[in-house]
Amino acid sequence: MSVRASIGLGGNLGDVRQRLEAAIARLAGEPGLALAGCSRFYRTPPWGPVPQPDFVNAAIAVDTTLSPHALLDVLLKTEQAFGRVRDGERWGPRTLDLDLLLYGDRVLDDDRLSLPHPRIAERAFVLLPLADLDPGQAVPGHGRVADLLRAVDTKDCVVLP
Question: Which domain holds residue 8?
């Protein structure tokens, strides 16, 4: 049985747009994943206390037969393939960040994975791409993407050509 999942993509080191497009192509070729949609690309300000360049962010929807944890493993493997090193620093610069944002209407919180993604309702760089995919998408425990988006500041987020 297939489940629709939403994946956030971002990065701010090197040729990010090219890397995000290559990561999307790689994910679309993974067994158990079928690309169902891709948002526009956005330039967004960095999040957190570390001074760094702006990010490029996007989101994809996939139909998957993988479990949430198996899908997370694919995302982590893909990050590594594109040079991501997870050194424990949060909110720092990165070559590629892939986040499992939503997995159907599943709610999960264990030592490896939280669904929906924590702080999803607070982040314009997540909500703008999700709204491109499906503004009516329900975020379990939070409401619809379009409603959440109206509550965040998007003024410094720019759609890329």
Answer: 3-159
